Amino acid sequence: MAAKKLDAIIFGATGFTGKYTVLEAVSVLKGLNWGIAGRSQEKLQSVLKEMSAKSKTDLSQTPIIIADVNNEASLIEMAKRCRIVVNTAGPYRFFGENVVKACIEAGAHHVDVSGEPQYMETMQLKYNDRARERGVYVISACGFDSIPADMGVVFIEKNFDGVINSVENFVHLGVKGGTKGLGGAALNTGTWESAIHAIANRSESIAIRRKLFPDRLPKFHPALKSRAPLSIAEDVGKVILPFPETDRSVVMRSQRYLYETEKKRPIQMQAYMTYPSRLVAGVVVFFASIIGIMAQFSFGRQLLLKYPSFFSGGMASRDGPSEARMERSFFSMTMKASGWPKSQKLAESTDQYTSPPSKTLTVKITGPNPGYGSTCVALLSTAKTILNESDKMPSTGGVLPPGAAFSKTSLISELEKHEHGIKYEIVANK
């Protein structure tokens, strides 16, 4: 007799992110039937034992599915066993496409935590039509990259009461009480490897986007200009640097989708990291410059991947962050939107506003442990939302960014329910 179909399977459960996704699944997927998958029965059983102890929950009866990312037949069989695959097996540049393809052919939805624009846009270019034919949702960027930002724009639009021209996002990463005694690592090497390959192949994005989006979005005024690196943003009182492109590229994909399907005016967006001083920001620029140059060459990438702790200034390690560091890590985003109130009219001849934006809304988004706490909760919450609210999502399926997929669902409310979830709040409305 065929095994009962599961609601969800966590694939790559023996990896660093996978293990903590299993831990968070105890609460987020409560009431659903879920299992775990990977190559090694022994390692998967070890994960269940470890996470049983951490969660004080007996996970010994959790279904185990053996699947190898390089074995297409095993991936299809895994996908046939469930309604949605929660894919934590990165770097997705190397391991993501086979899982996406298997899910589409098996008719199972797919979510992952990729922050790799080239992978995400390639999947949309290659598989969007087939996913729509099969009624399957394939949604990436379902972790810290880029649920807080993309759903933050959705939250802002629902509360703005007018027309938004632009959003600026200021991101702060911190550790409560400082990092003394916690060890320096904030990332494991899987996340580090994904970042290195994304940097090395950044130029690919231009060619992919030209194929994916042959028609440019219309220009709206006033244009949102980038702020100068190392300048001080008065809105947050911090020194800023441009945030790596994932959040902005994901938000703009969502905006394009909503423009093309609902004729909604696209929102311009810029994102920045914040730092307490120009000295600290300067050190970041120094390391980022070295990494950026080395990542362009094969030998340089080999060194970066072989010695992650050295080249990251101790921020990445093979062991990943300590439990103590993860417990005390947090993020906050300050998103400031500018636009016009409903009472302000468009110029009939140009379909544009003739006066500058006169209304602002500032939103704060916060969460703990962005790498492996909030990320895992966000990933599982997107899976749960697809299972429970597909009637509120685009009816055709497809390869979509989160904002486009979940704009009409209760995903934000789901994120706010959990201990390691993400909170959205309005802090100023002028």
Automatic annotation (TrEMBL):
GO cellular component assignments: lipid droplet; mitochondrion; plasma membrane
Name under which the protein is recorded: Saccharopine dehydrogenase-like oxidoreductase
Classification via InterPro entries: NAD(P)-bd_dom_sf (IPR036291), Saccharopine_DH-like_oxidrdct (IPR051276), Sacchrp_dh_NADP-bd (IPR005097)
Organism of this sequence: Drosophila pseudoobscura pseudoobscura (Fruit fly)
GO biological process terms on file: glycolipid biosynthetic process
SUPFAM superfamilies: NAD(P)-binding Rossmann-fold domains (SSF51735)
Xref: PANTHER family: SACCHAROPINE DEHYDROGENASE-LIKE OXIDOREDUCTASE
Tree of life domain: Eukaryota
One Pfam family per UniProt: Sacchrp_dh_NADP
Tagged with keyword Transmembrane helix: yes
Keywords: Membrane, Transmembrane, Transmembrane helix
Family: Belongs to the saccharopine dehydrogenase family.
Transmembrane residue ranges: 279-299
Residue ranges annotated for the Saccharopine dehydrogenase NADP binding domain, each copy included: 9-139
Gene3D superfamilies: NAD(P)-binding Rossmann-like Domain
